[in-house]
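Forwarding the complex inputs:
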Amino acid sequence: MAIILLLSGPNLNLLGEREPQIYGSASLADCVSDASVAAEARGHLLEHLQSNHEGDLVDAIHRSRGRCAAIIVNPGAFSHYSYAIADALATFDGTKVELHLSNPSAREEWRRHSVTAAYVTGVVAGFGRAGYGLAVEAVCASLDTA
Amino acid sequence: MAIILLLSGPNLNLLGEREPQIYGSASLADCVSDASVAAEARGHLLEHLQSNHEGDLVDAIHRSRGRCAAIIVNPGAFSHYSYAIADALATFDGTKVELHLSNPSAREEWRRHSVTAAYVTGVVAGFGRAGYGLAVEAVCASLDTA
Amino acid sequence: MAIILLLSGPNLNLLGEREPQIYGSASLADCVSDASVAAEARGHLLEHLQSNHEGDLVDAIHRSRGRCAAIIVNPGAFSHYSYAIADALATFDGTKVELHLSNPSAREEWRRHSVTAAYVTGVVAGFGRAGYGLAVEAVCASLDTA
Amino acid sequence: MAIILLLSGPNLNLLGEREPQIYGSASLADCVSDASVAAEARGHLLEHLQSNHEGDLVDAIHRSRGRCAAIIVNPGAFSHYSYAIADALATFDGTKVELHLSNPSAREEWRRHSVTAAYVTGVVAGFGRAGYGLAVEAVCASLDTA
Amino acid sequence: MAIILLLSGPNLNLLGEREPQIYGSASLADCVSDASVAAEARGHLLEHLQSNHEGDLVDAIHRSRGRCAAIIVNPGAFSHYSYAIADALATFDGTKVELHLSNPSAREEWRRHSVTAAYVTGVVAGFGRAGYGLAVEAVCASLDTA
Amino acid sequence: MAIILLLSGPNLNLLGEREPQIYGSASLADCVSDASVAAEARGHLLEHLQSNHEGDLVDAIHRSRGRCAAIIVNPGAFSHYSYAIADALATFDGTKVELHLSNPSAREEWRRHSVTAAYVTGVVAGFGRAGYGLAVEAVCASLDTA
Amino acid sequence: MAIILLLSGPNLNLLGEREPQIYGSASLADCVSDASVAAEARGHLLEHLQSNHEGDLVDAIHRSRGRCAAIIVNPGAFSHYSYAIADALATFDGTKVELHLSNPSAREEWRRHSVTAAYVTGVVAGFGRAGYGLAVEAVCASLDTA
Amino acid sequence: MAIILLLSGPNLNLLGEREPQIYGSASLADCVSDASVAAEARGHLLEHLQSNHEGDLVDAIHRSRGRCAAIIVNPGAFSHYSYAIADALATFDGTKVELHLSNPSAREEWRRHSVTAAYVTGVVAGFGRAGYGLAVEAVCASLDTA
Amino acid sequence: MAIILLLSGPNLNLLGEREPQIYGSASLADCVSDASVAAEARGHLLEHLQSNHEGDLVDAIHRSRGRCAAIIVNPGAFSHYSYAIADALATFDGTKVELHLSNPSAREEWRRHSVTAAYVTGVVAGFGRAGYGLAVEAVCASLDTA
Amino acid sequence: MAIILLLSGPNLNLLGEREPQIYGSASLADCVSDASVAAEARGHLLEHLQSNHEGDLVDAIHRSRGRCAAIIVNPGAFSHYSYAIADALATFDGTKVELHLSNPSAREEWRRHSVTAAYVTGVVAGFGRAGYGLAVEAVCASLDTA
Amino acid sequence: MAIILLLSGPNLNLLGEREPQIYGSASLADCVSDASVAAEARGHLLEHLQSNHEGDLVDAIHRSRGRCAAIIVNPGAFSHYSYAIADALATFDGTKVELHLSNPSAREEWRRHSVTAAYVTGVVAGFGRAGYGLAVEAVCASLDTA
Amino acid sequence: MAIILLLSGPNLNLLGEREPQIYGSASLADCVSDASVAAEARGHLLEHLQSNHEGDLVDAIHRSRGRCAAIIVNPGAFSHYSYAIADALATFDGTKVELHLSNPSAREEWRRHSVTAAYVTGVVAGFGRAGYGLAVEAVCASLDTA
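Prediction (whole assembly, twelve chains):
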């Protein structure tokens, strides 16, 4: 049994209330629940942390080193400028999935560039709430082949 | 039962032989088989076309209009310049997934920009062969909620 | 009597079905018919080829050398990257008209730059189906003064 | 019977004298006459104003609101920087045609970008004196379908 | 009692008629009246000039030197390219306020850069008709502390 | 009576001590007091939070949703890179004013671009301490017309 | 005896009063007088026009065609965006000198690029009032060798 | 005896007819013959394929894997945008020569950047018909030292 | 005796464990110890704070004003986007040294630009653990000459 | 009597032979002679050095410090990249004239930017051989007013 | 018998010792010898000069004018900034070959742009030591057809 | 005992005289002396060469190969364009320190980018004369750990 850390960046605590036409009507709890169920179905455990503070996410990534097998991170807006999170992800050896609810390529210009994406294993973006299950699947596929 | 069209762009016919350190050792047939199995497990049918010819992919997208419920496209290098495929994808109303074996953000600069990504529902990138199953799951999640 | 070659690029075969709020409800056949009628009214013959394959358009331009008096080309998305078509147009000595149904300057950023436009006599853009007749008129005006 | 306003921007008063290898040997009066004849043949009336003063063109566009059915504007060099004219065109509800004698895409780099083109219905460029008749035809086609 | 010069750039004469969803339904007279009332309430006199001609605005700025205590300028589209107005503003020693009805940062890309903003005391943008009163208040606050 | 939230970003706690030739000699308490007085004079209540921590500002914006009628935010340096605050502001439905003491357009190049400005109602910049009262006025004008 | 047209662009009427540390303390009349004296000493006649209106300068260039042997133009801020003046200069066959009092390369970034400089014979910049005499000398040298 | 594959991209079939001042008067057959003779003189066999279809070139590169010792490719305009051909070349382990008749650095700006050049062994450009023999020599030198 | 504040930005707490081939095998404690020893040898006192939270670093800089003689800051990834730290450094009057273990110029493109470097006295980069002693020496040299 | 140093950069030794349609048919000796005659007519002495070695020009500028009253430098191609010469010019307190025979703004793109121009008093460009006399006049005007 | 000048730029004297994995193990003497042998085999004479001084290469190009029939230049790093050498090459009328041992397109970004390449007949790059013979062949082919 | 080569680039011979507010009042001899004393105190020998000629610096780097243990280079303006020196530094295996008296990040835009910095071990910048001792210390620390 592996521990998968799910990290949610700024403004994701408002999921369901915030621009539902873009982010969907599910709450963050709904999404985390989906991810937990998917992880447990695969015999793994999912931990979750949401914060609007960049440093909290960096700290959490550090704490997961050696303890967690994978990180799924929806960095929210931090994707577009937080080199600190990028550097933190680089210090983590396991599977790393960058997850976005919406498809950043189809939105404002500044959302097209992710500074964190170069430091993860892969990306899942644009599938709304369903992305949470997919990200867990991606992690599990990786753990299985490891 | 829905039909899911899987499209593979240029050079993907060489999967398994071509730069396995980047693209993995599975053949395209292996990947397509994974996707087919996943689709069938969900009660859907997967069709596949690989071509090194941009026009073939455009034609296939056109033919799928009204007949297929979703398109999974790994445009290969066409991601980075084929506005013709981007325009073709825009004519298709169903779910559209852009799939990459490797994580383009972690490779050459020119792979960081996809001209097609703005015209799909979402993106799955960086999970190698496992991405094929994930893309089918992404489609199915979308079909279930439709 | 001169032969005018009308070339239609990728996705134009879907005219009338595809984003009618942008491209109008006329089919490609309607547009070609308008162009033919206009050409015949001026004593000329119009030939038409549509293809989603860049190479087909290059081939067609080559075949028209010495045989046709003018080319009207709606390159569709190829306008924005096909230097091969640009080079092909440069090999044709007659009048060349680049035709667009919509006004590319009023759409996505990437549609504002045409790599083919530097290699034609002139451009007609934004007048929808009526542009076909206008393009033929432009050709005829050029043939009359030649 | 509709009124069509033809606006000519800076330096167009020198047509015929100025770089005839680029702009042709016809005078502005010749071009305006062509446009008038074409308009009258279609039952419309053409008015013309040339000015080297940006503000005169803005004023004229304002005066045409509600009185004219269409504007044909050859903004000359103003195409490349006059956001004031762009804004003025945006206040006019009828058909708007941007007209150029030469093909800007085939000339100096700075002529490739038009700041006004995003605010017109369509563009006719590169057909010299014949463009005047084509622009009137474009307007008439638009009026007919309105 | 100080004189405050209010300058209105191109197309502002159409306020109330022009894109009311962006610029509001108040006329320029309404806005100027608001500013006058606000100025008089503070014991100052407001003068107003609107022109679609860049040179008129430059001339007016020159005439105000030594005679007016402050300039409020809504340069309209001139904000984005008129270095002549920027230079004119640099010659005026009093308080200078750049005023915009809409919020340029939330509109087209080209509206995000103002060439005049570096040469004024401050900017008030995005508050519609209410901005006129605010700009006068800004001027008065400055005059009081001078 | 409405609640107006005033947010002050990093380094604003040093107001009055920090580069007074740029930011003035008033302390943050002075500025907040001005804003409070102005709000109370209009029958509203002003709350204030200053933090050097981006996450604190995001949290505060979240807490104000549904409780406050307006936000006045001087994001300080966060204006230039905090997409997290930009996204947070987008989740707030009331009036939003971006406030700067100095005129960013007249300073270093990097201060000319605000990533938050596209997500507010309007901007007040360059009027020093007086800007606090102006921002409150801007909010009140907006509340009155709502 | 040749006629030399000296054109002065926007804000140059304020010479001597405006930023004397940059532009010097001589008035425009002083500068024009220097140029006239220099021209007469060489047997030529100097005419002068100053305007803050771009169109006036374009008109003046047109009127000088065939009548004047040379143009000396200090376009002021128009150097940096007036393609209309650039095009007008291109219609004039004689010697053309672009003159600047200050050295634009040593000032703000936007002054480093002149859109008119590509359309003149040569440039004299940075020598203050003395530049007027130098520009006349440059013209005379050109007339002598013509 | 090694097989050398010579690939000719779009518009090269018109060699000798097309802009001979740039590309020379030799036909493609002449050039291919030169290459064949050079190859045979060195004991090797040269195969040739010309196509205006990008996919044909990709297919041909694939077919040559394991069968040919080297590829000489004149991608024509494809050099400037075909990442598909770049990727195909990356799958070929032997010597790869990019060949151009003209010197792209001395022509239009867009010809200065080759997206394929990073994926070949070396480049021969600018020597017209003679380049064909030189490219074969380059291949042979490489084979000799392998 | 002066107090020197040493600040360590995000991820530096992992020094020794994190990419030792880049950052070396010494721990942060080792580095801080080196700096303390060097400071004490010069009769000064070194204080240290590490945080992954940008706001903590800003707060610490503020607290050091008037109390510390110098700041040595290794901002880690914050160097590349934290204008908040840049602004905080600008409020500190003493000597400021930006310190990097690796040589950012020899790594990813985004590490080549530091937004904080313009606001410090000087930079020491690339010397690994030895840089800590060098930075203290740089501070001491500055204090000696002050 | 003042000493004026005239410096000629790379390739200027070929003046008269090298691209006379651009640089004229006068030799460098002719140009230097013109400058000397002009200097002597004004009671000054002109020294000249030509070198194709950047370091020679830097050395010469250094040697002129305190000995020469002015420098006229035609840096040739060094204008476009030699920051070493720019820095050297910055160390010279007298009048400095950058001189070009041709008008760089009307030639290749790379000639439009001069890295040295920000460090001189003024520029004379485009007047061919006559520029040498003009540059001396510019220097003398400066010396007279000093 | 023609004289061919071979020029070697900075750091090429270290060939064989310097990064042999990039530049090969042959010394410059080996390469020059290859070129000489090739030239003599064709009845020509090869002269060689290596220098780390840009001016030496400019001087050598000048001296070769009228005396040598061709220049082969490996400008080394000068390719990327020496406009002085570019200008010098432009003064030479014979065949000019730019030669690189490695393939600059496959290395650091800054090596992809050559400022000299626009001023030569053609380029040979990427073939290591064998490039020397190829460059001589390229020259001979050119001399034969001249 | 190791030999440390100290290289000083263009204009550094004027240290103490040249812009002392930027570069300080110490002469180059003073700085070199500091470095020598520091080196000797550590048991090493310092050699120094200053030149305004890029080639001299390249030559000196070459001569130091195998003979010197480290290079300290203050490339002056060469930092910003001399790829030849960058390439030369790449051929030297020992410790390499880039040294600047001032902090280039706090000066003109063009000083922010160093083309040589990617090819050295580390950088010391902004500490004036004291930087010379620090650079020697940096070298010694490196030699001690080697």
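Chains A and G do not touch (no CB pair under 8 Å).
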